[in-house]
Design a protein that fits this description.
single chain, alpha/beta, five-stranded parallel β-sheet, 5 strands
Length: 235
């Protein structure tokens, strides 16, 4: 089958500009107004868009844990541009498993890591959920396509799973967690996981299949056993 190609035309090409002017005139659009809009700076920066999607409590989160900062650097280095001149996007990368007591700062570090990624100039399509909310969303019920939701979560380029191990253990929870983690493991999608369980206790809660994959796909970060919510410095 014969295909036909056309030489690419730039915006500065005289013929292209003439055609654009005729199209705008036919639609009663002032070319000067269009040019003025094109010259306007973006109203919202990528960081603004990110913060708008974050819970207010974590909009000012700053990642300062050395292993979390190493993760940010590694993910940013693996980001790729979908086309020439396009912004680099997170596609694959390592994962983190952050373990520590309630209030140790794990969630703060997770949101801060995403914020730091955006500030480095990398595009991030991401999602954050607690494990309990995730299971509630995925539980089969009338009018909800649970399989489609599971696929969306599993394929999200960057996922935060907060409080893994907080939900009640069951065969269904173990199976759903396995399916999600296995897909992310196979596609090497970066995942930030926080848990209040000691790492040695994860196997009893999640089962061998999940913990085996987590062991291979994540760097384990142990937080100091201090509840920072209860030990804030006096104002």
């Amino acid at each position: 089958m014969r295909t036909h190609t056309r030489d690419p035309q730039t915006l500065g090409d005289a013929g292209t500009l003439d055609r654009m002017a005729r199209i705008l005139a036919a639609r009663n659009i002032d070319p000067a107004a269009v040019a003025a809009l094109a010259d306007e700076p973006e109203r919202f920066s990528p960081l603004d868009a990110l913060l708008a999607a974050m819970p207010p409590r974590y909009q000012g989160a700053v990642a300062d844990h050395p292993q979390v900062l190493d993760w940010v650097r590694d993910v940013a280095q693996q980001a790729v541009a979908p086309s020439i001149g396009a912004r680099r996007q997170v596609t694959t990368g390592p994962s983190l498993l952050m373990a520590g007591v309630v209030g140790a700062g794990k969630t703060h570090q997770a949101y801060g890591a995403v914020r730091q990624l955006v500030q480095t100039g990398v595009g991030v399509r991401w999602r954050a959920t607690t494990a309990a909310d995730l299971y509630a969303d995925l539980r089969p019920r009338p009018g909800v396509d649970s399989e489609r939701e599971l696929a969306a979560v599993s394929r999200c380029p960057l996922l935060i799973i907060d409080d893994l191990g907080a939900a009640k253990a069951s065969e269904w929870v173990e199976e759903v967690t396995y399916r999600m983690i296995n897909r992310r493991y196979n596609h090497m999608l970066p995942t930030l996981i926080t848990t209040n369980l000691a790492i040695k206790d994860l196997r009893a809660y999640l089962g061998d299949r999940v913990t085996s994959r987590l062991a291979q796909m994540t760097t384990r970060v142990e937080f100091e056993p201090v509840d920072r919510r209860r030990h804030r410095p006096a104002a």
